Amino acid sequence: MSAVLWTDFLMFAVAMGGSIAAAVYVLNLDGVGGSAAYWHTPRCSRSSRCSPIGARNAAAGVHHSLVVQWWSVWYPGSEPGGGGYIAQRMLAAKNETHATGATLLFNIAH
């Protein structure tokens, strides 16, 4: 059980560290100009007119949506009932309250 705990902790730390590093990298790209420029750039709203999306960008958007949908169905633990992946973590908890909290943290973090 302790090996499962340490493995999950290490995987969580690597995943969160990678996510934060990717966000920092993207915000510092020349096209973005940093977080201050990102938050102060006007966005399109329902009342404003935005430039139309080209056919290539629309096809890429559909492709990315399908890839994300496939990933969310394939991802371990996404099957109905959580499957063995989630059940193993729930059974390793001290009690039902800890199992529920761990499952909620898993879903929020992912």
In words, what does this structure look like?
The chain is mainly alpha-helical and 110 residues long. The chain is built from 5 helices and no strands. The protein starts with a helix and ends with a helix.
Instruction: Note the gap between the termini.
Output: 22 Å
Which stretches of 5+ consecutive residues score pLDDT under 50?
none
Radius of gyration: 20 Å
* Number of alpha- plus pi-helical segments: 5
**β-strand number:** 0
Biggest β-sheet: count, sense, barrel? none
Structural class designation: mainly alpha
| Helix content class | 55-70%
Q: N-to-C SSE series?
A: HHHHH
Coarse morphology: extended
* Mean of residue pLDDT values: 76
Please indicate the percent range of residues in DSSP E strands (runs of 2 or more).
under 5%
